Amino acid sequence: MGFQDVFKKSFLEGFTSMDISAGRIMATFAVTCILACYVFAIYRLMTRKSFYSKGFNVSLAALSVITAAIILAMQSNLVISLGMVGALSIVRFRTAIKDPMDLVFLFWSISVGIICGAGLFEVALLTCLVVTVLVLILENIPSSRAPMMLVVNLSDAEAEDSVLELVKKASRFYKVKSRNISQGAMDMVVEVRVKNEGAFVKKVSKIDKVQSASLISHDGEVTF
Predict the structure, then answer these.
(1) Where in the chain is the domain with CATH 3.30.70.1710?
(2) FRET partner for 4 with CA separation of 20 to 30 A, picked from 55, 64, 86, 172?
(3) What DSSP assignment string belongs to 157-172?
């Protein structure tokens, strides 16, 4: 038996069966469940969606425990770890994550399971605290006010100058998004940022040859 065969045999014997005590398993699952419930509570408190997805939140907590179990199994046996790597590599998740914050909580939940499965409980606890403080601080930073969309229907395209003159007085920054002229009439969309929205719309509607005026909010990017 050559040196290479001896090295392979000693390497496999060292990693084929690594005993993990029942106490460590119970401690790992206990800490993981506590931190998973913490992530569950933080997501419930911080989400601002119109429709709260309880199923997604429950899956976050379950995902931490499942990930911790996988890490424990991979540590116990080299053959199992290689098999899990091959099995997990063929899994494809087709669910689209629309909200970036959902993606943050998803990675947070997985990281808690990985760190707890590795036995680094202090790191997992510190990670939860740091992420919570960071998200709370960044969430409470005031952002610039989102602009509004002024939609004006004009019976005569020549009335555009009167509308834009009023817009200049009421809004420091504005931008004409579209102009649509049909048989002398015009539909115009202007991006504005005004303080007194109700009074501004009334003033626009009183302009001669203005048939209708609407002020609409949008969920696009905030301009500075």
Answers:
(1) 148-217
(2) 86
(3) GGGHHHHHHHHHHH-S
pTM: 0.61
- The CATH number of 148-217 is 3.30.70.1710
What is the greatest pairwise CA distance in the chain?
Answer: 100
Give the residue from 138, 155, 216, 152 showing the smallest Cα distance to 188.
Answer: 152
Confidence class of residue 84 from pLDDT cuts 50, 70 and 90?
low
**In contact, 146 and 100? CB cutoff 8 Å:** no
What average pLDDT does the segment 11-22 reach? 59
Phi, psi of 179, rounded to the nearest 5 degrees: -135, 125
Of residues 183 and 9, which shows the higher confidence score? 183
Distance from C-alpha of 13 to C-alpha of 26, rounded to nearest angstrom: 26
Structure tokens at 71: 């890490």
Q: How far apart are CA 17 and CA 173, in angstroms?
A: 69
Q: Do 193 and 173 touch, CB atoms closer than 8 A?
A: yes
Enter the tokens of residue 89: 């590599």
* Token pair of 196 as six digits: 């007194």
For tokens 């002229």, the residue is: 181
